[in-house]
Amino acid sequence: MTRRTKDDWKALIQQQEDSQLSVADFCQQHNLGQTYFYKRKSDLKKLSMAPQKEAFIKVSKPTIKPSQNLTIKMQYQQSRISVPVNVSPLWLAELIKALA
In percent, how much of the chain has pLDDT > 70? Predict the structure, then answer.
């Protein structure tokens, strides 16, 4: 039994289409199982239709100017609290717990 790569199967499928032979006749000439031929053809078609994924995604860190005064603003009904973004998460958690 011969092992074939994807490229081998692509070439065989193209060869069958170019030969004007039926799949049954082509498979018989090349000693291929007709069912297996159709399966490989279907698999390759699915692969060609699948969206191609990039190996890497470029991610860039957003730049924040130090002069900006960034704050976290929280509001519940009529109460509003504003704290700087660099506040300790533990302190903020304690504050929220105390207000609950």
Answer: 89
Quick check: pTM over 0.70? Answer: no
Taking the C-alpha atoms of residue 37 and residue 2, their distance in angstroms, rounded to an integer, is 13
Total Cβ atoms within 10 A of residue 71: 13
Residue 80: strand, helix, or coil: strand
The backbone torsions φ and ψ at residue 13, rounded to the nearest 5 degrees and listed phi first, read -65, -45
H or E stretch covering 14: helix 6-19
CA gyration radius, the chain: 32
Question: What burial class does residue 75 get, using C-beta atoms within 10 Å of its C-beta: 0-12 exposed, 13-18 middle, 19+ buried?
Answer: exposed
